[in-house]
Amino acid sequence: PTYALSDAMCALEGADGCFLYPSGLAAITGAILSFAGSGDHILMADGVYEPTRNLAHKILKRMGIETTFYDPMIGAGIDELIQENTKIIFVEAPCSVTMEIQDIPAIAKAAHGRDVLVMMDNTWATPLHFKAFDHGVDVSIHAGTKYIVGHSDAMLGTVSTRAEHFEQLCNMSYQMGYCLSPDDAYLALRGLRTLKIRLKQHEANGLKIAKWLEGRSEVDHVRHPAFESCPGHEYWKRDFTGANGLFSFVLKQGHEAATTAMMEGMKHFKMGFSWGGYESLILSYHGIDRYRTATGWAAKGPLVRLHVGLEDPDDLIADLENAFGRFNQKIQNESVLSGQQETE
What we know:
Layout: H1 2-13, E1 17-21, H2 24-35, E2 41-45, H3 50-60, E3 66-70, E4 86-92, H4 104-112, E5 117-121, H5 126-129, E6 139-142, E7 157-161, H6 163-175, H7 182-214, E8 219-223, H8 233-239, E9 246-251, H9 256-263, E10 270-271, E11 281-285, E12 303-307, H10 313-343
Parallel strand pairs: 2-3, 2-4, 4-5, 5-6, 10-11
Antiparallel strand pairs: 1-7, 6-7, 8-9, 9-12, 11-12
Helix pairs in contact: 1-7, 2-6, 9-10
């Protein structure tokens, strides 16, 4: 099943080789260490998956690999950040949590003009909604734990390349001891058989809920790549063929106690990070600035990320309606308490 899964991923991505890893983060680590070493420099999008950022800060730095984080919306301007020792430009579209869509063809053109590899975390789109190699990417990474497996019952990472890069990827990955169990490969192959129809339902459910959220008075704006309010929406329209159930929205106001009240008591949405399965998930983020070093964050209210699963969307909307009720009640109670304390 491991060879069958590698072959299937190559067919979906248009790649010449695919190496399998025991998790998405292992795939990211294996890919970076295959093409960068001590004394090298990496450019990494400021909105990447937080464990990828931690890898750069805690491990790559210790190994003598320097990382510079860049504005995800930089496009062709990234050429100005490329150094003589830059080996990799790491892109992620959309960015984890904040959902910016990058101009990947423009970044790839600048990178290839300076002999730099473009490495992409393509987990959100999957090979069905974004053809990485057709848009200039050299190394395509997927946390197959998410939509590829699709049932939240196995962990998997994949890295696909064209022929000229695959031997180097394999040499390092074999030496590092990366491997995937045949049972997990089997579960991923099972997931691939229903990937297209699952993504279609995730997308439909997600769009319905995102449109409903746009009409809520508590919501400042929705960050869904299919919406004009999402940074880089025009690149999504140009380069991607679909969406799914993962997106974020920003609240106009709200302290941590209010968002905690909002999420506690959910009937259908569960609190959790590892999206891509059949179930709906919710998380709130306060202080987005701690996830960014190259770009600021203008929104004043907290950000909420949803993964809309395969449940009935009307049930999910009812769940969110009740959650907003708890959110508003908590803010009102805090306001009354604050007023009483000022009076005293």
